[in-house]
Amino acid sequence: MRKRFDQMENWLQEGGSAYEKLKIRFYTPIYRGVHAARNVKAGEKICLIPKKQIITLEMAQESPIGQKMFSHGFRQTLLSPKHSFLTTYILQEEEKGEDGYFFPFIDILPKTFENFPIFFNEEEKNELKGSPFLKQVEEKIDDIKTDYDAICDKVPEYEKYSLTHFSEIRMMVSSRIFGMNIEGQKTDGFVPMADMLNHKRPKQTTWTYSDEEEGFVIETL
């Protein structure tokens, strides 16, 4: 994992990303966290990811399969359209392997998903008996399958992606993407490095897409 992350860092830095005030700490071979590399004052910029290294909803819609989905009106008819389009983009990028521009980022994304409730085993689900949360989990599973089946019905080649893998990437998308406004257009997207920062309340950072800096910026509060 460390070697793969080093490759992503090289890719980010070669593309113009800047986050020298941050560092990655590995707790286990597959578990990592983002920390401050030094004392940081309020109002400091701690991360800049340029536009070309952000996977946006528009890129997903313009991808080969994304265009077919868009032509069938899935931008309006799917239960979770933006998540499904971005999932589709990641699935296509995975197929490109090392030939894809985003490979260094795709390569460090999670490979196991058992911590998402929709993938809980029966023993774990039994622990939720009596809780309304269990019903929400089952509804999420049904919603994801509904979108998957709808896409496969209109875009037959989509069946090469299994429902399980679609569900895995779909959950990863929903847990990692940022909403932003790029040049006056509201969109959603993957922001490498920024997607690994954890949340805290009250929040200690603020983030936005800066048209002036042509990238995604995180500043401290």
In short:
With 221 residues, this protein is an alpha+beta fold. 42% of the residues lie in helices and 20% in strands. The chain has two domains: 1-53 and 191-221, no CATH class; 55-188, Alpha-Beta Complex (set domain protein methyltransferase, domain 1).
Fold blueprint:
Elements lengths: L1 H13 L7 E7 L2 E6 L8 E6 L4 E2 H6 L1 H8 L2 H4 L3 H16 L6 H4 L15 H5 L5 H23 L8 H14 L1 E5 L2 E6 L14 E6 L4 E6 L1
Antiparallel strand pairs: 1-2, 3-8, 4-6, 5-6, 7-8
Describe the structure.
The protein is of the alpha+beta class and 221 residues long. The protein folds into two domains: 84 residues, no CATH class; 134 residues, set domain protein methyltransferase, domain 1 (Alpha-Beta Complex), CATH 3.90.1410. The protein has nine helices and eight strands. Strands 3-8-7 form a three-stranded antiparallel sheet, with no helix packed on it. A three-stranded antiparallel sheet has the order 4-6-5. Strands 1-2 form a two-stranded antiparallel sheet. Strand 7 and strand 8 form a beta hairpin. Helix 5 packs across helix 9 and helix 8 packs across helix 9. It is globular.
Overview features:
3-stranded antiparallel sheet, 9 helices, 2 domains, single chain, 221 residues, set domain protein methyltransferase, domain 1, alpha+beta
DSSP helix fraction: 40-55%
Q: The CATH topology of the largest domain, please?
A: set domain protein methyltransferase, domain 1
Task: Compute the average pLDDT.
Answer: 95
The level-1 CATH class of the largest domain: Alpha Beta
| Strand/helix succession | HEEEEHHHHHHHHEEEE
Low-pLDDT segments: none
- Alpha-beta classification: alpha+beta
Distance between the termini: 31 Å
Shape: globular
**CA-atom Rg in angstroms:** 18 Å
Total separate domains = 2
CATH homologous superfamily title of the largest domain:
set domain protein methyltransferase, domain 1
Count of individual helical segments: 9
Number of strands: 8
Spatial ordering of strands, largest sheet: 3-8-7
The CATH architecture name of the largest domain reads Alpha-Beta Complex
Major sheet description: 3 strands, antiparallel
